[in-house]
Amino acid sequence: MASPAQIRLRMRGIEKSFGPVHALAGVDLDVAAGGVHALIGENGAGKSTLMKVLSGAHQPDAGAMTLDDAPYRPSGPLDARRRGVAMIYQELALAPHLTVEQNIVLGREPATGGVVDRHAMRRAVNEALARLGDPELHPSDRVADLPPGLRQLVEVARALFGDARVVVMDEPTSSLSRAETERLFEVIDRLRARGVSVIYISHVIEDVRRVAQRYTVLRDGRSVADGDVPAAGAPEADSFGATVIEAMAGRRLDAVYPRVPHEPGEVVLEIDALSGARLPRAASLALRRGEILGIAGLVGAGRTELLRAIFGLDPVREGRVRVAGVSDAGAPPRDRWRQGMGLLSEDRAREGLALGLSIADNLTLSRPAARLGIVSRSDRDRATRALADRLSLRFRDCAQPVGQLSGGNQQKIALARLLHHNVDVLLFDEPTRGIDVGAKADIYQLMGELAARGKAILFVSSYLPELLGVCDRIAVMSRGHLGPARPTTDWSESSLIEAATSVAHG
Ligand SMILES: Nc1ncnc2c1ncn2[C@@H]1O[C@H](COP(=O)(O)OP(=O)(O)O)[C@@H](O)[C@H]1O
Ligand SMILES: [Mg+2]
């Protein structure tokens, strides 16, 4: 057990309401000195609000905090910063037209007798950069010219410049490439070694494992679980994902991942040594009716490109695709659609739905009869209602624009649209990203039901627990290469991570 002296930050009974919304209903959090503490929870759990209380942006309604055993109640963000609490925001808060150096020192230029001491300033900036392991950043680079990963490091450097004791990172990797993420993790390791406490907000369990030693799960504004993050290979490492998911969701895993019995049948989609312009590289797989085949891998491994090549959105350089017995060397999306294939893309706002159109229009859009105006309004609304019931979709009326719905409901509409067209082979790219637990469970349930009706589903996801929770088989993609599909029971989170991060040969 950590002795009190090792606790850097203590939060007790923190409450915060926004009008009727009880965003924080009494949260306790202990953060050790020189450690990385993961704060985990679904959207809306209260993570950002808690951190805004910590960083002085919100005043709590109740509760108390101590920082290195001294009472801590910041009057605002500047006060928090003076006390050594720095926040790295989800949306970067830098001034893009200024240089790296100007951004780092903004608001706290070292001055002697009211005059800014340029040499001292440059020295301090270089020191802050050196503490990050000298990333390829120059103090005079303009922030606007930097890629997102480096911009983020400038923010971290800015925090260090103020001698932060606690650095909060709110979902810092959401817009970073895998290489940038890995570099950020190295920087975090370095901060920890220097005795800085990092609070790391994420719901990516594999990232939490990589970077954190302790974790707390928030749900509905309360801390519902906490503990040590098990080391890789520890006996509880494989169940860590399930433990965290159950805590985040507040339901047992079998309620999160409902099992709908289904039986794989004959092969309906076969791809043979398929290569795209860059990715994938000679990918092969066979997907059966009544099967959910998962594809795991890191962001950038080529999974989206694989789906796009199969569906004809990207050119096929080499290889063949065989759908329902017909083989070709690539075909455009309209042919795939006719062959009974549908794609639910990652970017539903851009490719999946017409956000300005009604729910009913979105469902029936691009169905030939509807395009000719043959489907009557009442037929259409009836079809929409029937689908909505099956998906537990909640909306006021069929004429409501899709753009007004929650992300989860939008995703269900995109799915319903594929069902309405009676698609046989479904390609899903991260279908549950950014939606709440309840909507996720509905989507898993539906996937199971589709498989039970003989549909074939290719399921790309970065969220390992859901792959392990719903797939019959899983294959791992790494740097454009697709590994063999193995029964899900042969995989664990750690073996999937290992396969995803190993360098593929061939
Ligand atoms: N400024 C605000 N005004 C009103 N409601 C808010 C505000 N900030 C957060 N909330 C609400 O508080 C709850 C927790 O939100 P948040 O802390 O952002 O969660 P998380 O970061 O875990 O996704 C949500 O219901 C959210 O809608
Ligand atoms: Mg948040």
Description:
There is one protein chain. By secondary structure, this protein is of the alpha/beta class. 35% of the residues lie in helices and 25% in strands. Strands 15, 18, 19, 20, 21, 22 and 23 form a seven-stranded mixed β-sheet that branches. It has a six-stranded mixed β-sheet with strand order 6-9-10-3-11-12, sandwiched between helices. A four-stranded antiparallel β-sheet has the order 2-1-4-5, covered by helices on one side. The chain binds adenosine-5'-diphosphate and magnesium ion. Adenosine-5'-diphosphate binds at residues 18, 21, 23, 41, 43-49.
Describe the structure in brief.
The chain is α/β, with parallel strands linked by helices and 506 residues long. It contains 19 helices and 23 strands. The strands form 5 sheets. Strands 15, 18, 19, 20, 21, 22 and 23 form a 7-stranded mixed sheet that branches. The protein has a 6-stranded mixed sheet with strand order 6-9-10-3-11-12, with helices on both faces. Strands 2-1-4-5 form a 4-stranded antiparallel sheet, covered by helices on one side.
Supply database-style keywords.
506 residues; alpha/beta; Rossmann fold; 3 domains; 7-stranded mixed β-sheet; 6-stranded mixed β-sheet; 19 helices; 25% strand; globular; binds adenosine-5'-diphosphate; binds magnesium ion
